[in-house]
Design brief:
By secondary structure, the chain is mainly alpha-helical. Helices cover 51% and strands 0% of the residues.
Length: 201
C-alpha cells in the first residue's frame, strides 16, 4: 500500500497532493509559454478551492505566493506580483518576553488595574464618575462569570478601593446594573405559538 506517510511531505497541505503534483509537473515543462499557461490554470484551480476568499483584496497575490512556495521558488515563469524572499518564510520569529507582572485579582485581569490607574489620574467630575461606573460594571461581569454566588455591589466597591489603594471614592448611592438582568433583556423573545380555532374548542 502507498500510504501518505511514505510519500513526500506536502509544503502546503491545505491544497492537497494533486495540486502539488500539478506544480511539480509545471516546473518540468520545457516550453515557457506552456509552463506559464499551466501555472495560470493551477492558480484558477487553487482559487476555486477557496471561493469564500475571493473578495479579499490580496487573494490573487497570496495564490501566486503559494504557487511559488510549493514550487520551492524553482518554477521559471513571470509572476504578476513580487514574491516574498525565501529566507523570510523560514526565519524564526522574535521570541516574546514572558509576562511576569503580578495581577492582584486574576478574575478581573490586568486591564481593570490599568483602567483604575487612569481613573486615579483624572480630575474629579462627571467623566471620572462615569469611568468608575464603567469599571465597576466590567468587574461585575467578570466576577459573575468567575463565581455567580458571590456577586454584589459592596464587594465590587471594596475591590475598587483595594485596587486603587483607597484613592478612588465611591458614591454610596451608585447602583451597578445587574449582569443577569441585562443579559436577560438582550435575549430575543421567542414568538408565541398561535393556537388554532380547533385547539381553542
Amino acid at each position: 500500500m502507498d500510504y501518505n506517510s511514505n510519500r513526500k511531505k506536502l509544503v502546503l497541505p491545505e491544497y492537497g497532493r494533486h495540486i502539488q503534483k500539478m506544480v511539480d509537473y509545471a516546473k518540468a515543462i520545457e516550453d515557457p509559454e506552456e509552463r506559464a499557461k499551466s501555472a495560470k490554470s493551477i492558480i484558477a484551480i487553487m482559487g476555486n478551492m477557496f471561493p469564500h476568499l475571493r473578495d479579499v483584496s490580496d487573494f490573487k497575490h497570496k495564490l501566486w505566493d503559494h504557487l511559488a512556495i510549493m514550487a520551492n521558488f524553482e518554477i521559471d515563469i513571470e509572476f504578476p506580483y513580487k514574491l516574498p524572499e525565501p529566507s523570510i518564510l523560514y526565519r524564526r520569529p522574535t521570541k516574546l518576553p514572558y509576562n511576569t507582572s503580578k495581577i492582584r485579582y486574576r478574575h478581573y485581569g490586568k486591564v481593570v488595574e490599568e483602567l483604575i490607574g487612569k481613573a486615579i489620574e483624572m480630575e474629579e467630575g462627571e467623566e471620572k464618575k462615569k469611568l468608575i461606573l464603567l469599571i465597576a460594571n466590567h468587574m461585575k461581569k467578570s466576577l459573575y462569570l468567575w463565581n455567580k454566588d458571590s456577586v454584589n455591589d459592596d464587594r465590587i466597591f471594596n475591590d475598587i478601593k483595594m485596587l486603587s489603594n483607597n484613592q478612588l471614592t465611591i458614591d454610596e448611592n451608585l447602583k451597578i446594573p445587574d449582569y443577569k438582568e441585562s443579559n436577560h433583556r438582550s435575549r430575543k423573545k421567542r414568538p408565541q405559538k398561535r393556537t388554532s380555532d380547533r385547539e381553542k374548542s
